[in-house]
Amino acid sequence: MVVKVSNLVKKYKERIALDNFNMEVEEGEILGLLGPNGCGKTTAINCILSLLSFDKGEIEIFGQKMTPNSYDIKRQIGIVPQEVSVFENLTVKENIDYFCGLYVEEKGLRKQYVEEAIEFVGLSDYIKFYPRKLSGGLRRRLNIACGIAHRPKLIFLDEPTVAVDAQSRNFILDGIKRLNKEGSTIIYTTHYLEEAETLCKRIIIMDNGKSLVSGTNEELKAMITTTEKIVVKFLEPGSIDDKMKEIPHVVDIERDGEDYIVKFENGFNNMANLLEFIKDNNLTYTKFYSQIPTLNDVFLQLTGKELRD
Description:
Helices cover 33% and strands 28% of the residues. The chain contains 11 helices and 14 strands. The strands form 3 sheets. A 6-stranded mixed beta sheet has the order 6-7-8-3-9-10, sandwiched between helices. Strands 2-1-4-5 form a 4-stranded antiparallel beta sheet, covered by helices on one side. The chain has a 4-stranded antiparallel beta sheet with strand order 12-13-11-14, covered by helices on one side. Helix 3 packs across helix 4 (107-120), helix 3 packs parallel to helix 5 (136-148) and helix 4 packs antiparallel against helix 5. The protein is elongated.
């Protein structure tokens, strides 16, 4: 077990930020830590890293109790924060060398690690550039290089693809997979649920300071009511919403523009039942296809659809 968090409680006066939060991370996995804004993700990570004190609970990393003075443990951890945290007055190479030097004192080894990190994130053509001269995607890649140059065994990645273009995002995600294949255990937070769905071996969804569920994508999808969605668009639908709710096993109907999204609670004969309804009501459809539930469906059913600040 690389990380074990047991019954973690963190209070800010009367507000409970973490309410007996639990998390386990196995060696070699990419764990997705998901939740809406304000759910406690950042607080949990800061407590795990001993950057923030907590009121109750236990934290172990690499089988040892984590404390603010656990420097031997901290040397094996890499952190890539959501906000790009680099020095604007240092070049790309100088930034990576500085952060690597916090962990690696031997100059020859540090030089090797810095060069490998530059190559890993694809910044070889920008080593003399200052951060302000880099695009958003390049700054993100610099941020990652600074966090992983010392070859940590455990890496915390906090929304590393925020506000980057599709090409940069794919490059970063491929890099994360390579880090994992090379032996790093990764804790990954993101609001892009499709990233977690394709990247993470296991996912924890948390809200209100608690871990609500934990499991693989398939295990999480099996927990929710909706097992199939059918998207249909009618030529002239009329007033059919209430009638559609009488179709066997329908649990909800949503509208997305002119599309009806019909949600079912089991996966048997749903298309046939909906087609029979369309025939019986003399409707004509211009779009009709089935979808299996996504991680987004799981997330919304567990945490709700209300906007969060």
